[in-house]
Amino acid sequence: MTVEIWSDILCPFCYIGKRRFENALAQFNPEEQVEVIWRSFQLNPGLVSNPDQTLAQSLAYQKGWTLTQAEQAMNQVSEMAKTVGLDYRINEAKVANSLQAHRLLHFAKSLGVQDQAKEALFAAYFCESKNIDDPTTLVGIAESIGLDPIQAQAAIDDPAKQQLVEEDLNLARQFQINAVPFFVFNRQYAVSGAQESATFLNVLQQISTVKESV
Prior knowledge:
The chain has helices spanning 12-27, 55-63, 67-82, 99-110, 114-126, 135-144, 149-156, 159-174, 197-213; strands spanning 2-7, 35-40, 182-185, 189-192. By secondary structure, the chain is of the alpha+beta class.
């Protein structure tokens, strides 16, 4: 079974959805082989990185909210994150464009460690207050999961990795994906949003049952 997940590192619900999906996988048939592929998506492609700006200020500007409304929304999602064991420091998050991080994810995929890279990037952004648009930070993240730093830097600058990101974005448009996280199972079933683990488990079991009956 193949599960493709479109998500953005800047999306707080994507990290929560990752945890809920992982919880479902932990309860699923251990004999079933499930390949997880992380696909690139950018919620705000034109976002200009600004580590000196607070995320609340950026969100208020993008959404047309007051600063208080933005802070309340961030606090609510932080409380949701706690339900799956994530300790968000979202008030300290650095405003950053995610494009370079997506290139790094494709490099990690080529070496079979994409899930580890995705986890490390999410943690860096939401829990460690790191600037994920800073090459030094990205290379450090790559090193932390065992990747060669020189190769990682080259991948971040590689036009071929940019092409892979564009291919994911084009697929998202073809599938009319306009919100993330978005989970596609065997190119036949889709689940939108950070659904509860029970929902993901139900889909996994249904697909497995259909395969067995064929």
